[in-house]
Amino acid sequence: MRVVLQNMKREPEKGRIRMTVQFGGEPPKEFLGEYKQCDEKYSFCNLEQELFMRLSDLAVRKYCNCAIYQMELMGIIIAFLSDQTIPSFPIELGTTDFGIPRPSRTRIFFNRIKRPFYLKWSWWKFRHIRRENLLKYGNASKNKT
Q: At what angle do helices 49-63 and 68-81 cross, to 10 degrees?
């Protein structure tokens, strides 16, 4: 499914924008975004919850990484508000250089294969550590009484 950013407009409040986003064949819908630059190291970009969750779901299904579309949209918003050059509208998410690089098809395939084994290992590790802590600290509490 394609995600297309149709246009962006500045709101009267500083750092706020209104975006028109289209998901696949659905009609375009408007969303609010807000960019706050707190200091040199960190910047925060808030999106409406519906937009954020839909982008997360699409990125997980397509790239196995839910942050790809959010990071790209945040980069576009920052560039738009700071008057840097951005591609001409409409912008299809997943085709720009903003954000983090997309994984290759091989990386996606191996991540999908690796996931069940990693989940089993992490569950075993969690149970093993929990059992060790129970034995270590459980005996100490019994000796005190």
A: 130
